[in-house]
Design brief:
The protein has 176 residues and is of the alpha+beta class. The protein has two domains: 79 residues, Arc Repressor Mutant, subunit A (Orthogonal Bundle), CATH 1.10.10; 58 residues, Ferric-uptake regulator, C-terminal dimerisarion domain (Dna Ligase, domain 1, 2-Layer Sandwich). The chain is 43% helix and 12% strand. The chain contains five helices and five strands. Strand 3 and strand 4 form a beta hairpin. Helix 2 crosses helix 3 and helix 3 crosses helix 4. It is globular, with a radius of gyration of 22 Å.
């Protein structure tokens, strides 16, 4: 097998970008909207940044390469992308909305550090969909589970380690 050359890699990246552009244009057109250069710029920044950025983080990213794009344009574009179902708005425990361009999946949010982890679990999503249908409920977003991540687990709010052994305290009897 021949290793890809710089030209091949650039060609495949360009083709992938063209396919993504066409898919986004079709999706917006089906909802009655046009794909403007500003909307493409916000979408591309959202995909580039990865993770679950805030609108402000995206604005700073867009502004670095396209200084004429306003904060209002970024916010309106994010609202539109949420409206047409390309992006999910994730209200987080810290009160800041983050944006997720991924398809259906489960989000695990740590309420201590704010980290959000994507988990692909088709069985869980299918169960949630069945539950929603049985209750005649239209689910607009995926599943967000809030709790404590492994890095923060076992710590108090001030960062001290919690007692994790299962021994009873001195002077207390264990029942059983």
């Amino acid at each position: 097998m021949v290793a890809p050359t710089g030209f091949c890699i650039a060609y495949y990246l360009r083709m992938s970008l063209q396919n993504e552009f066409a898919a986004l244009r079709r999706r917006l057109a089906r909802a009655g909207f046009r794909l403007t250069p500003q909307r493409w710029t916000v979408w591309a920044a959202l995909c580039e940044v990865g993770g679950h950025p805030t609108a402000d983080r995206l604005y700073r990213r867009v502004r670095a390469s396209h200084p004429m794009v306003s904060r209002a344009t970024v916010y309106k574009t994010l609202d539109l992308l949420v409206q047409v179902g390309l992006v999910t708005a994730l209200p987080t425990a810290d009160g800041v909305t983050r944006f997720d361009p991924g398809g259906p999946h489960v989000n695990l949010e740590c309420v201590r550090c704010g980290r959000i982890e994507d988990v692909q679990d088709p069985q869980l999503l299918a169960s949630v969909s069945r539950l929603a249908r049985r209750r005649r409920f239209r689910a607009d977003r995926g599943v967000v589970v809030q709790g404590t991540c492994a890095r923060c687990g076992g710590r108090t709010a001030d960062g001290r380690r919690l007692r994790t052994d299962s021994k009873p305290h001195e002077g207390r009897k264990r029942h059983g």
